[in-house]
Amino acid sequence: MATRRTFLSKTLGLTAASFIGAPLVGLAPARAAQDNLQPPPDIFDAQALDLEFWVKPRTLTVTRPQSGEKASVLYWRDGEVIDSAYEQLCHLLRDVNGKETAPIDPKLLETLWGAQAFVARYGIDSPIEILSGYRTPASNQRLREQGIPAARQSLHMEGKAADVRIANLNEEVLGGLVKSFRQGGVGFYYRGGPRGGWIHADTGLKRTWKG
Ligand SMILES: [Zn+2]
């Protein structure tokens, strides 16, 4: 990451007291949207992470609700992506509908892993649910026809975007955290119901939107 150097000069500075006030879990998505809650900036800011966080081996645990797959993949160690594990993750983030696999931007994997590793520090060790990863143009078009939010030039078609959620973590907090990695765009999709909405994360232009 471009700002890795700044990690050296910052400390995480987490305390139990600062954590208590944070509406981390169990907050209804609708209410989060309504109150326009922002994640506590000092806690959910990836820019405050220490270098140690970034140099440790990276294991990404994901599920695909659509296909029922689940895997925990050690994909990065000693500063390098592990090829076979990278291929496994590309497969997991494939187009489940179109049955096609494509290369996934390693920066996207870094953001997903970073978000997961970050909240794991707070005892949230749920897998990242991948609702959508790579999409073939045909799959993307089908979603558009079904009225499901999908951009015409979606970065999903370039392996640079994923729609994700983490159980019991509301969209506001997860989206705010993903945004703090400064790797690209973040879409907040608030939805009612027990499973809530999702976050779109990509490695394109740095921008945010609500969908
Ligand atoms: Zn998306």
UniProtKB/TrEMBL annotation:
Q: Name one GO molecular function term.
A: metal ion binding
Question: Would I find Transmembrane helix among this entry's keywords?
Answer: no
A GO biological-process term: cell wall organization
What InterPro entries has UniProt attached to this entry? MepK, TAT_signal, Zn_M74/Hedgehog-like
Pathway listed for it? Answer: Cell wall biogenesis; cell wall polysaccharide biosynthesis
**Signal peptide start and end residues:** 1-32
- Supply the alphabetized keyword list: Cell wall biogenesis/degradation, Hydrolase, Metal-binding, Metalloprotease, Protease, Signal, Zinc
Q: Which cofactor does it need?
A: Zn(2+)
Q: What top-level branch of life does the organism fall under?
A: Bacteria
Entry-linked PANTHER family: OUTER MEMBRANE PROTEIN, PTHR37425
- State the similarity comment: Belongs to the peptidase M15 family.
Q: What is this protein called?
A: Murein endopeptidase K
Species annotation? Pseudoduganella plicata
